[in-house]
Amino acid sequence: xxxxxxxxxxxxxxxVRTQLEAVQEKTGEVGEVARILSIRPDIYHATTQLFKALxxxxxxxxxxxxxxxxxxxxxxxxxxxxxxxxxxxxxMLGMTEKQVGDVLAGIEHxxxxxxxxxxxxxxxxxxxxxxxxxxxxxxxxxxxAGYSDxxxxxxxxxxxxFNYINTISNSLGAGK
Length: 176
What we know:
Layout: H1 14-27, H2 32-37, H3 41-56, H4 63-76, H5 80-92, H6 97-105, H7 114-127, H8 136-144, H9 149-171
């Protein structure tokens, strides 16, 4: 149970209430992270826009790559709620139980091309407290692995999004 007092959906600002009611109708429930964010409509809408841009809309990186980043970063941040949710999404996108299990076990266990491993390793470095130690060499390694600057930015943004949402989830008790 979240550490904040979550107002009933019926009492939320209309634009947020409408979206959460649609989610509830479609899935049967509204997650606690969405409920926490709904306390502040401006933060809810900004987060939703970022989520859609990075994870829902077609982008340059495949959805399985982005879900792998989501699981790796959320696992690194010990955000069990986000790990579980993105394991489920990864399976919906066609990742097998073995593939999801390999992501949870760590990059060295993932049966993916070397260039994807390089990207995953970069994202794990980005997610860490010592991301300030990343250098031009790290970017050049990704370029040499075939990634464009736009794809590198996208992977970094997905990583940053999960650091952000994991912090909200963990710090405010979502799912506790």
